[in-house]
Amino acid sequence: MAKSILVTGGARSGKSLLAEQLTLQFGQPAIYVATAQAGDAEMAARITDHRSRRGDGWTTVETPLALVQTLRDTDDGSPRLVDCLTLWLSNLMLAGADWGGEAADLAASLPALQGPVVLVTNEVGAGIVPANALARDFRDAAGVVNQRIAAACDEVWLSVAGCPMRIKPQ
Amino acid sequence: MAKSILVTGGARSGKSLLAEQLTLQFGQPAIYVATAQAGDAEMAARITDHRSRRGDGWTTVETPLALVQTLRDTDDGSPRLVDCLTLWLSNLMLAGADWGGEAADLAASLPALQGPVVLVTNEVGAGIVPANALARDFRDAAGVVNQRIAAACDEVWLSVAGCPMRIKPQ
Amino acid sequence: MAKSILVTGGARSGKSLLAEQLTLQFGQPAIYVATAQAGDAEMAARITDHRSRRGDGWTTVETPLALVQTLRDTDDGSPRLVDCLTLWLSNLMLAGADWGGEAADLAASLPALQGPVVLVTNEVGAGIVPANALARDFRDAAGVVNQRIAAACDEVWLSVAGCPMRIKPQ
């Protein structure tokens, strides 16, 4: 049975490095499933940074929206690292897609996959309530997605200042 | 002796569901002590959502300000779920009340109650420092309230992506 | 060998009190290394509050920028409490200094110190992504500094609602 792992944490808390290590425990070659699009300079720099750190042994697939289908299409036994769910949610919301249905599909599909999947997400709900209604909606949606995917995963990790804490199972 | 439990976490982190489960371990009927007022559409929708999930076996008391008195008035042995302290603090501050004194009263009253109490609160201090002075004051006050009530409670739980972590006692 | 400890958490989460307790386990007199400058009323009030709580047995050194040098200058075996790295980073960025180089210097210097050091920092990356580019840069930098110093420290603690969690080593 597939192993599915969720890695969460704040910005720059060491999530991606932890997720890479958790992915590589399943062997190589591994597939980096990027939900980002290099649409602006900041994001392009971040993608380049991640790519140079990962080095050889990885192939990259970009999938801003069709994440569930991409996980099925790449399900040849290779470990996959999905980076990240928060950006995927943002892409879905911007595209006017049914993000709740997509998240439910993802949660339902994880146990049926052959190969392991490590998913990165972000903690965005531990600051002050945003003044902006759209930001509040996004924050709520991100929390809902995190809960649904965490419930479907075999393991959940929280990274704080680069220190990994396994929070499911404890 | 009464059992008092604090449940904290970010927005949509699974706090309310965890708090309901912790409350029901003390049996039913249970009392849902709501500090929210259905003053706007967002809040009304949230209250309805919580109410439909809880189902039978619960009665609801609304107490935007007089939380300590309400806990004394309902102290017939039934378990109580207070949802939530952050909104209570916000109500107190908007009313110009002495929130520090109220929080100290609540902390002092918890050990003297006959029935168990589970209190929900929010993590609001792990984002960037707010530019707005009122938001900074609220964030500081919320942190102070969380510390005071946590110190008075027998147990404290942190919910992250729906995964419960008991942080007191560890 | 010196013991270096990082204490992190959100605003008003009990970090400073925990850091004081961890510092005093190494004995007294202890040195409070303040990176704050009493430049505005809010900060002055906070410094006074901390100072009155700590009481006797502490001396205070203010070092808004030259933290690494101050730690060498005070390395007579006394325990030191650095409060806090987030403000130090902010001071460095405002001064146009090479904060990345400074953080690397600090990380490298910790194992070579004779006396113990407890460093306080802040979780600032678990809220919604800030709309403001400067705030995003600061949030990213704070996360990078936290990871680097955490990696160099023997222990890392996370404080939530005044409840201490040791997250390194677990």
Automatic annotation (TrEMBL), chains A, B, C:
One of its GO terms (molecular function) is ATP binding. One of its GO terms (biological process) is cobalamin biosynthetic process. GTP binds at residues 9-16, 34-36, 51-54, 62, 83. Pathway: Cofactor biosynthesis; adenosylcobalamin biosynthesis; adenosylcobalamin from cob(II)yrinate a,c-diamide: step 6/7; Cofactor biosynthesis; adenosylcobalamin biosynthesis; adenosylcobalamin from cob(II)yrinate a,c-diamide: step 5/7. It catalyses: adenosylcob(III)inamide + ATP = adenosylcob(III)inamide phosphate + ADP + H(+); adenosylcob(III)inamide phosphate + GTP + H(+) = adenosylcob(III)inamide-GDP + diphosphate; adenosylcob(III)inamide + GTP = adenosylcob(III)inamide phosphate + GDP + H(+). The active site is at residue 50. Catalyzes ATP-dependent phosphorylation of adenosylcobinamide and addition of GMP to adenosylcobinamide phosphate. Belongs to the CobU/CobP family. This is Bifunctional adenosylcobalamin biosynthesis protein. The lineage of its organism: Bacteria, Pseudomonadati, Pseudomonadota, Alphaproteobacteria, Rhodobacterales.
